[in-house]
User: What shape does this take?
Amino acid sequence: MKAAMVAQAGSMPVYGDFREPVASGGERRIAVRAAALSPVVKGRASGAHYSAPGAFPFVVGIDGVGRLDDGRRVYFILPNAPFGSMAEWAVVPSSHCVILADGIDDITAAAIANPGLSSWAALKDRAKLKTGETVLINGATGTSGRLAVQLAKHLGAKKVIATGRNAASLQSLKALGADETIQLVEATDALDAAFKQSFAGRVDVVLDYLWGRSAERLLIAGTKAGKDDIPIRFVQVGNSSGANITLPASALRSAPLEMTGSGIGSLPLDRIVGVTDELLQAAAKTRFQIETRTVPLSEVAQAWPGESCDPRIVFTVGA
Assistant: This one.
C-alpha cells in the first residue's frame, strides 16, 4: 500500500510503498480517507514527543477518518504500530473507532479531532468546568486555541478570556466567543498588569497552550489574586513557547491552586475515545470553525516542513 513513512528519527516522511496491515480478532480494517497533520504527529515522527514509537521505519499519523468494510464512516485513533493513519489502510482495535454522524464531513472530522480533544478533555475531565465559570485560554490564536474558545462557550463558560501575540488574530476571536483579549506583550510590567486585571474579576480555569514566560506570569498573577476557598484550576496542554518555566515556590504556597496536564497519558485510552466521540457528535450539530488545507498524501514531503500546523493540513487518501 502507499503510505507516508519515516525511516529514522529526525528524517522527513517520504511517500512510498509499505506492507499492508492485517486485522486479527477484535480489530477493524479501515480504508483511510483523511488524516490531519498536528504538532503531536510531527513530534512523534521526529522522535521528540514523549509518546513517540521507538522502532523504525513506521507509518506516520495517529488518527484519521475512513470507512469500514461495511461502508460505515469512522474516526479512528492509534493504529497498531508500525502502521499509522497516513496510509491507504489502517488496522485498529474495534474500541479505537467511533462512528461518524452524517452532519460532519471527512475533512472536518479529521481536522477537528486532535485539537478539539485537547480542549474538550481539558475542560470536561481535567478542569471539570461548571456552567457559568470563567475560562482563560493562554495561546488562543492557533488552531487548538481558537477551538478552545468555541468549546469553552459550548460547554457552559460564561466568560472566555483569550491571550495571544497577534492583535488582529486576537480581535477575530471575539466572533468565536471570546469576551476579553490580552495581548502577550514583551513588557513584563504591562503583561502583569493585564493579567492582574483579569484575575481581579475572577478566573476559574486556565487552559495553557504555551507554557514559557506567559505561563509563569499567569501563575504568579493567579496565585496573588486567588481566593482562599476557591482554587484556580490550571491545565497545561501545550508548550509552544518553551518546555520549562521558573516559578517561585512561594507562589504555590500563597493561594489555592490546582495544576494538572491534559494529553496522551493523562486519561485512560477508553476515555480518550469517549471524549473524542462526544466532541465529534457535538461538531456534527454545531458548526465549530476550523481552518483547513487539504493536500494529497502523495505530496507529504512538500507539505510537512514548517513550524506551524495552522491552518490544519489534512492529507487526503484514496478516491
Remarks:
- The first strand starts at residue 2 and ends at 6.
